[in-house]
Amino acid sequence: MMLEKTATGDFIHRYHRCLVGPFSGKRKVMSTAMEHGGYQENLTAVFNQDVNPGPGRLCENMEAGQQEKMQAFIREELGLDPGTVARMATIVDMESAAIKSETYDILTVTAITTASLEVNGGRIGEKATSYEKNGEYVNLRPGTINSMVFVSGNMSPGCMARAMVTATEAKTAACQELMAGSLYSSGIATGSGTDNLMIICDSESPNRLTYAGKHGKLGELIGRLVRDTVKESLNQHMALNPVTQHRLLARMKRYGVAEGSFFKKFNELSQDGQRDFPKWIDRLHRLDQEDELVTMTSLYVHLLDQLGWGLLSGPEAINGGAMILKQIAGVQSIKFDRSIKQDESDQVVIQKMVSSFVTTLAEMVMANEINLDSEGEKSSNEKKV
């Protein structure tokens, strides 16, 4: 199926679980591609491949010893020359790809993105999960945000390198604006561990381009289109969007808070033993998407973030957190852990603040139990009338 005509005049096709872009003329490509990556001027096509074999199985084309099989696939199934093709791989279905183009004067940019953070979304600088030595194969799990950026003009090699930086910033901005959590720490994700990027330009264009930073129109277009396609594909692939993130559990997930955290605390605080789980979880879900509570939780999480970044001290974060929890609890008293020692690390303080948050919310569920049940009965009676 032909999907789109790109800024370079090349058509994007979807077949055999791939997005394929055969070139209709001479192109320059700068990429992190698995084959023929780096700066290239002799490529004839690029493609992005869905290599997801299903839950619990290693992606076949990511295994060692699959080079010959991949070359046969490119030649026989895609109809391309394996020696002049750059490839990216992902677990994202190609139907979840987002494609956007924008034109300014004689300049056109097209961005095509497939995005996932559910397998290996992470934050830059976290502890590594693999190590490569002397070119030995390193097993990586593809989750991946993959973008192809097509530019109508003739970019210099330096301009293409700058475009890689601009597009990467755009990807990170998309993750930040969605408050997407890392799977390896409490940080906001900056991408996944296997992200790939391709910049493709028309080397035959008379429009010479030398700058792709954020201060120029080319950089503006690349940044906006990559950011927007990353968001769109994350929504289509894994329903990561502002609506699903508008929940207190979604905001606190990065700090290890889940339904089970509240249920455990609820049982600890209850004097009558374990309560009925379905009724309790219903009460929690009523609070989960309550506007003011989501707002207060967002502020609380930002205190934790700033403490972790070194922008606030432990006492400052503790005092700010106590004010937020008082606002959340209303007339209820709160049990905020203020037992901070001078030599305690930021991580210990964060753990104490997370515990205080969970305790406050669990007490709210317990204190509002009768009211919530009464409201439910009232609503039921009103429907009967």
Secondary structure layout plus pairing:
Elements: E1 2-5, E2 11-15, E3 18-22, E4 27-31, E5 38-40, E6 45-50, H1 67-77, E7 85-90, E8 98-104, E9 107-115, E10 121-122, E11 145-151, E12 154-155, H2 157-177, E13 191-192, E14 196-202, E15 208-209, H3 217-238, H4 242-245, H5 248-252, H6 259-269, H7 277-288, H8 291-309, H9 314-329, H10 346-367, H11 369-384
Parallel strand pairs: 6-7, 11-14, 12-15
Antiparallel strand pairs: 1-2, 2-3, 3-6, 4-5, 4-14, 8-9, 9-11, 10-13
Helix pairs in contact: 2-3, 6-10, 8-9, 9-10
Number of domains: 2
Helix content: 40-55%
Radius of gyration (Å)? 25 Å
- The poorly predicted ranges are 55-59, 370-385
Q: Please give the CATH class of the largest domain.
A: Alpha Beta
Q: How many helical stretches?
A: 11
Largest sheet: spatial strand order: 5-4-14-11-9-8
The appropriate CATH architecture of the largest domain is 4-Layer Sandwich
Termini gap: 55 Å
Question: Remind me, CATH topology of the largest domain?
Answer: L-amino peptidase D-ALA esterase/amidase
Q: Quick one: biggest sheet?
A: 6 strands, mixed
| Strand residue percentage | 15-25%
Task: Average the pLDDT over all residues and give the rounded result.
Answer: 86
The strand count comes to 15
